[in-house]
Here is the input.
Amino acid sequence: MQIPLASGTYTDAGAEFRTSYPRNLVPVIKNTGISKLFLRSAEGLTRFDVSAPTLDGFDRGGINWRGTCYRVIGTNFVSVDATGAVTVLGQVPDDGYPVAMAYGYTNQGIGIVSAKTLWFYTIQTPSGGTNPTPTLQPVTDSNLGKPIDLLWMAGYFVMTDGTYCFVTQLANQFTLNSQLYGSSSNQPDALNCVWKFRNELYLGNRYQIPVMDNEGGTGFPFVENEGATIQKGVIGPYAKAITSQGFAFVGGAQDEAPSVWLSAGLGIATKIATREVEIALAQYAEAQLYFATLEYRAEKEQQFIYLHLPDYTLVYDVASSQAAQEPLWFLLDSSADGTGAWRAWHPVYCYGKFLMGDKIDQRIGFIDPATAAQYGTDARWQFDTIFAYNQTHGVVVNALELVGTYGRAAVGESDTMSMQYTDDGLVWSAPRFISMGAQGKTKKRAQWRPKHFFRNFRGYRFAGFNSAPISFAALEATPEPLSA
Here is the structure.
């Protein structure tokens, strides 16, 4: 009997049946001949920055401009070259929250919103000269206000301060005027963020998303298309992400609990959060969710939407969910006990890699498919099964076999994994460990022969620590049902 691996079941102290998502394991839709879905190790994190100067603070955002990676770490605006060398280019204020970055035309450089101030990094070549001059400058125009989000479109740097949307002047990005401010015609709620999709400007109000077209002119250049308004809103400035097929956001309508949505515009948003994801969101107050962060990374036919919360990093796979015709979520985790969030964020694709910042310190890493370890530390993976049940007649389980790709451990290492069971979804048995096979033992069969009996229902949990990547294609059980 083959037991599904995509997600499991447990119970909580409130006597509710809950969904358990794989942790540090990615569900992949593929017909292997063994099963139609397998779990693979989440890619590891490997240090990319080399001989970096000692910097205070953690990563606050990054961007790829003209083939070079730029990031903000604490107060430091830095460049990271293809060899991993880090150069400090200047200082911006640090309020402990992520920055917003966007680049314009070559002569406009990179715009940075940090701690509600606006900065521009430009590289200018003097007329007739050959030595380019890099400069990081603040915008001091009294019309600026206190921006919280930023994008670039049609020659403008577009911002919001939580109430209004406003743009820089076309002729000079360091200047603004009061005529360049605008908002939705029906905006009683906060304006938390802005983004561009299909060459239209989207305003992320708290309870609705108006859409604006660029009509130019001497004043605020955008005019609202009221028929395109999405009747859901965005909860905070970092809670949205552009995807290959549209955009995702955290939020909802007024008098509606926050959820996660996916939209391709046209006034429509589809919920992709499951009940379990919404339970996780419900643990936080609105003020905490204001800082929730959504990010997107696409690679190898998988399209990941990362939801960063204080205690969780939940990941939704767009393509696999469409193929499976059900939401596929999993968890990424950097804790030793499997109860924390992933330390990496702010992916930037540069030099043929996804470079990642760090939530804890200054390090810059990259997504490394050659290992499952995170900066040299073995990552803890775990997955649970759904409950086995034989209509209260009871079952004897003679054997369990986890079919996977074993024997990939490093020379001299012998990775192990454990199995636990539960008869109530709340209390788990002591773990029983077996070997995952030394290097070269690729024909290893991972089997437990518990020969145990349960009368009502039973769930299983499998976990391990390892640096070598591994995949699990199926869980085969040999049950012996008991008659009534």
